[in-house]
Automatic annotation (TrEMBL):
It holds the Pfam family DUF3017. Residues 1-35 are annotated as: Disordered. The chain crosses the membrane at residues 45-64, 70-87, 99-119. Keywords: Membrane, Transmembrane, Transmembrane helix. This is DUF3017 domain-containing protein. InterPro entries: DUF3017. It comes from the Bacteria.
Length: 123
């Protein structure tokens, strides 16, 4: 095997493909192949976190049935996001493999629903 047979494929891989020029100011691209900004992947996480925070505030206001139910709803929302969205769109909700995340979040939600059901109503 000669050195040229090795260098040619390596040189072909190292060449950069020609990039299209940037559109002029005021012109928009065709929209094909444009990617969403990276922070957009954190929107599902923010929705779950804000719902969870609202549940904690409700528990702090001495509503021991509504608060855990709201937190359980946030966990179920996280499980739905984790089950349906692709891995690059779930942001920080993706911790382990998909089925373990969904099972864990669903299990915790069911336990919190049971806790909310048996909690005494203080009024």
């Amino acid at each position: 095997m000669s050195q040229n047979t090795v260098e040619e494929p390596v040189a072909a891989k190292s060449r950069q493909p020609e990039e299209e020029p940037d559109p002029a100011p005021g012109e928009h691209g065709s929209g094909v192949g444009e990617r969403a900004p990276g922070w957009l992947a954190q929107v599902p996480y923010f929705l779950v976190l804000s719902t969870m925070s609202a549940g904690i505030v409700v528990v702090a206001a001495a509503h021991f049935k509504r608060g855990p139910a709201l937190i359980a709803g946030a966990l179920m929302l996280a499980a739905v996001f984790r089950a349906l969205l692709p891995a690059d769109k779930t942001g920080m909700l993706a911790v382990r493999s998909r089925w373990i995340d969904v099972a864990t979040l669903t299990g915790l939600a069911v336990l919190l629903i049971a806790l909310a059901w048996v909690a005494p109503q203080l009024s």
